[in-house]
Design goal:
Blueprint lengths: L11 H24 L22 H18 L4 E8 L5 E6 L1 H17 L7 H26 L17 H7 L6 E2 L2 E2 H7 L1 H21 L4 H19 L8 H4 L5 H14 L2 H8 L6 H30 L4 H4 L3 E3 L5 E3 L10 H14 L11 H25 L1 H9 L10
Antiparallel strand pairs: 1-2, 3-4, 5-6
Helix pairs in contact: 1-4, 1-5, 1-10, 1-11, 2-4, 4-10, 6-7, 6-10, 7-8, 7-10, 7-11, 8-11, 8-12, 8-14, 12-14, 14-15, 15-16
This protein binds NADPH dihydro-nicotinamide-adenine-dinucleotide phosphate (NDP) and the ligand CC(C)=CCC[C@@H](C)[C@H]1CC=C2C3=C(CC[C@@]21C)[C@@]1(C)CC[C@H](O)C(C)(C)[C@@H]1CC3.
Amino acid sequence: VAPPAFKDEFGGTLGATCIPVFLPLTVLYLLCVCRSPVASVIQWPPVLPPTAQLWDPLAPVLILGWMALQSFFYLLPMGKVRRAGMVLKDGSRLKYPINGFYALCITAVLLTLSLWLGMPLGYLFELLLPLAVCAIGVSFLLSLYLYICSFWAPHHALAQGGNTGNPLYDFFMGRELNPRIGSFDLKYFCELRPGLIGWVVINFGMLMKEVELRDSASLAMILVNGFQLLYVADALWNEEAVLTTMDIVHDGFGFMLVFGDLAWVPFTYSLQAAFLVVHPQSLSPLGATAIVTLNGAGYYIFRKSNSQKNQFRRDPTHPSVANLETIATATGKRLLVSGWWGLVRHPNYLGDLLMALAWSLPCGFNHLLPYFYVVYFTVLLIHREARDERHCRAKYGLAWDSYCRHVPYRIFPYIY
Ligand SMILES: NC(=O)C1=CN([C@@H]2O[C@H](COP(=O)(O)OP(=O)(O)OC[C@H]3O[C@@H](n4cnc5c(N)ncnc54)[C@H](OP(=O)(O)O)[C@@H]3O)[C@@H](O)[C@H]2O)C=CC1
Ligand SMILES: CC(C)=CCC[C@@H](C)[C@H]1CC=C2C3=C(CC[C@@]21C)[C@@]1(C)CC[C@H](O)C(C)(C)[C@@H]1CC3
């Protein structure tokens, strides 16, 4: 039996106690700020909504209906049959359906149909706060369910980090690695479907609200919608690649990921679109071209580097990666030291951050709020890089040190 893991991630027990209180309040606060005329994150006294604005009986119906609809799409026998994930502690490999892109397409068809039937999608703007409250509630309930069920999971199915014996810390980190109901994988489903697709649906609702208010969608709103739709469509098109990410391979499914997937992503990643509804911006053609170019460059780096590593991990003999320079490690796996992964140790983070900046720039320079995503994301990725570095050093030892000497910069070439 392995020794219990240390409570050393995310500030230990204190972090695991405070974050589940602080982050849900942050989501609600940011939504209130972005709808206020001043939209200042440092406004005092802070903008607080009347309690009546936090609840709408339609919200739980929409959230639960949405989860049920996306679960139904997940179970439909379409797309690639069932792909095997990474090898687990007991030597087995779980199978996953690869049909997320179809789920996005069917959702798009349903949205078009509902527009045609005259459904007021712009009403999502009014519903943002009650929807966020319900998504937060669902996150707490699901995390509690996962925590309780994990006590029936076999030992080899537990995650390394969320297994300390401290209930608060384990609830936060997640005890079980791949909780499932039958063949329905809860973590894989939540990571890519309800929150990610929900995010672009909310964005579209904000665009429709703008059309309602001003008769047409602004260029800034179209760019934000287009960029973020590209990001979500890319994630679902390359769904298989998520099977090699840290969340799926290493992290347990606890409050951090449940809340991140179901509440944080849809309601904070859509802040720029919600902001533009109340604070319209005009963009010059030159400004728009520069922003599109920045997003294109970020996307290119993000996609090429992620695909290169994914291809290399799936089949190192594939012609697209077979000629790259590598370092051998004691585990039998090799590390890339040329190509994208020879430029910096996380080229995919670099591309993702350039895109994050391009999503905020259409909102102009008069407010900090639309830049919340860039700031949060920089902190998240620097922290994530440090966590990954610790895992890799523990896994690969001297080979990792040698990789770090070959590739000294972590995310930004010649800077960090
Ligand atoms: N939009 C958002 O909110 C978020 C987006 N992301 C994005 O998700 C994507 C995945 O990120 P994440 O899971 O954090 O990390 P990575 O995809 O960067 O995966 C890290 C793993 O890659 C392997 N690896 C590292 N260096 C090398 C190398 N030189 N050669 C071969 N393999 C290597 C190691 O695993 P092993 O050796 O075991 O294979 C390491 O643990 C990124 O593009 C990131 O930007 C991430 C978080 C949030
Ligand atoms: C503040 C807080 C609660 C943080 C939790 C972190 C989560 C929001 C993120 C952890 C890793 C994520 C990934 C994506 C979304 C955000 C979370 C869940 C991702 C699905 C976005 C789309 C990308 O293409 C991706 C598939 C590579 C990515 C995977 C990691």
